[in-house]
């Protein structure tokens, strides 16, 4: 049987097929919601129907056995529906109020804390780090674990902060951890250009592909030996993309690799609209496994924000209100010229929110 183009080009399935029955029944007709306790949101529909979202943080990597246990909870209390979010949460839509505490009990018995709603610490986004990736300058999972241990109570508390705080950790500036739009972000930083191992490049790598892979055009053929390459150090931004294509260009350097800290980003379109995080600490050395100094800096920023921000004010909005000069003063963070944004194509000059006003 030959299928027509229309039959083949069906696209992704309709997301409404995967909605829990209570959500599908009241789609677009929800009256209000309220945060009744840490990790639990009550939704009330115009019809009078109620539903309860129970949210818990889970590891980035879980075994199939763990997924099966989570699905068993969903089968028992949630009509078989379960949701995994982009921030590594698991969410249960519970249609009966009497089952909420049972869901919490069963999930926490598995070792997963329920929380991350309203004005709390949201689940921390992270990339795979040293475990599975070949370009990171730092280890995202262990930094994330250290931050979770420090801010565990704030994750479970709906009223921990003036507004939500979203943290993210990425092993390098390619930012698989979506760190560019987070309230507080830790990003791994390489500070030395890749080492070119001529013997490997000559035998196993494609020079044209290496040249095209560089976003800054910092790679060019080596004069006198066109089978290998050289790197323009002034142009290199230490992204490590070339190493993804060729093992003969390793970028790791234990002496110079470390982390940077950024603050003030958000995706939310409310009030000031989306914001990009700004660099405040250009480099801190790697200190696994507990990352004491990184955690200490983040804790200090969070505590000062909590004491000085207004209600419903995100970290970036608070900083813009008091000014970056004041932020560096009260946090006692040394200002560096590397924190000055001199990129001529800065998105700060572009319209980037959904709010629109005719002029």
Q: Pairing-aware structural class of the strands and helices? A: alpha+beta
The stretches of 5 or more residues where confidence is low (pLDDT under 50) are: none
> What is the averaged pLDDT score?
91
Under CATH, the homologous superfamily of the largest domain reads Sulfite Reductase Hemoprotein, domain 1
Shape: globular
Specify the oligomeric state.
single chain
For the secondary structure, the number of strands is 12
Helical content (DSSP H or I, runs of 4+) = 25-40%
User: How many domain regions?
Assistant: 3
Main pleated-sheet profile: 5 strands, antiparallel
Text of the CATH class of the largest domain: Alpha Beta
**Number of H/I helices:** 12
What is the fold named in CATH at topology level of the largest domain? Sulfite Reductase Hemoprotein, domain 1
Strand adjacency order, main sheet: 1-2-3-5-4
Radius of gyration: 24 Å
The CATH architecture classification of the largest domain is 2-Layer Sandwich
From N to C, what is the helix and strand string?
HHEEEHEEHEHHEEHHEEHEEHHH
Quick overview of this protein structure:
The protein has 3 domains: 23-109, Alpha-Beta Plaits; 125-190 and 255-349, Sulfite Reductase Hemoprotein, domain 1 (2-Layer Sandwich); 198-245, Alpha-Beta Plaits (2-Layer Sandwich). Helix content is 28%, strand content 19%.
